[in-house]
Amino acid sequence: MPNKEDIIKIYNQTISFEELFNKKIDYSLKEFSYFDHKIVLVTGGGGSIGSILVQRLLENKCKKVIIIDHSEYAIFKIKLKFKKEIENNRLHLFLGDIRNKKLLEKIFSLFPIQIIYHAAAYKHIDILENNVDESISVNVNATINLLEIATNNCFTEQFIFISTDKAVNPINIMGISKRISELYLLKKILGDTNPNHIKIKIIRFGNVFNSSGSVFTIFKYQIENQLPITITNRNMKRFFISKYQASKGLIEIASPANYSGIFIINMGNSFNIDALLNTFLQKLDLNFIPKIVYLDSIPKFEKFEEELYFHFEKIDDYISDYKKIDLNNYDIINIETETTNLMQLIKK
């Protein structure tokens, strides 16, 4: 039975990720012993990925899950959904901004946090294009602050950073900000500035079906309001993954057997957006025919097709659900050079 997080509802009709993408997902629950009695922090824990990740963590034997999120409404929804876990002292919620170093220090003083999932970020591409300073402040500076606190904390074992396919050969502010964070983390991995030698893991994946920034969320809004459905280009392709698949990959990559590095959740092939939309509409029993508008132009901050790794990145290990990148082609000098070049791009 499909996870309800992987279903879109329109006019009392439902379409699942499995139906739309013709993929069969194993939704059986699995417990992973490496979470036994662990205290886990999830930044952005009220968001699309964060909240489903929190659910997976609570299904395992984590001692406690700590959430920090800047959205009061997101915290409110989490509080309703996991009331019992809060009462059992397994879930703790903090309303706040991850740029607030004093708040982060307070959380780390209250709990001996062992695993960090850093999911908090600004993700809407077109919005970030007009808010460069804010995107760098949240996506880069807050990541640096959090990692500094983590690496100086004697309890922390893992720092897991959620990145994006848009960080590969980035052409927009969102992708650039995520890539700069990746480079900062890689410098920590390859350098000698990690006093407690915590494992630092960078996780890349593509678009998440039915997330707050998904194209299907836009399609849903346009259909329900009987607006024209807009597609940038009829040949544009994107990678897609379900919320369940994303959370499952994040859980499995936390295995202590995985050392520091870059991991890519297996996304399969990329999908044509126009073909997906037509399949989507065919599965809906609408009493009107939606108008589809093709803009037939690609904004300078969007790619025709996304990528999951750079041409110089070689696959080290290939597991069924994720791949690991060999870091031999990275060194401190080229990391610093790429960081400088990206910072110059932002200033233009």
UniProtKB/TrEMBL annotation:
Positions of the Polysaccharide biosynthesis protein CapD-like domain: 40-287
Record-linked InterPro entries: NAD(P)-bd_dom_sf, Polysac_CapD-like, Polysaccharide_Synthase-Rel
Superkingdom of origin organism: Bacteria
Transmembrane segments: none
Protein family per UniProt: Belongs to the polysaccharide synthase family.
Protein name, entry field: NDP-sugar epimerase, includes UDP-GlcNAc-inverting 4,6-dehydratase FlaA1 and capsular polysaccharide biosynthesis protein EpsC
Biological classification of the source: Bacteria, Pseudomonadati, Bacteroidota, Flavobacteriia, Flavobacteriales
